[in-house]
Amino acid sequence: MRKFLIPIFITGLISISFFSIKKLIYNSQSLRCQNSSYQLKNLVKKSLKSVVSIQSGDSIGSGFVIKHKNKKTYLITNSHVLNGNNQLVVRWSNKEEDNATVISDLGGESFLTDLAILEIQAIRGIPLKIRKSNLQLGVEAVAIGSPQGLEFSITRGIISALR
Question: Fewer Cβ in 10 A, N or C end of the chain?
Answer without folding.
Answer: C
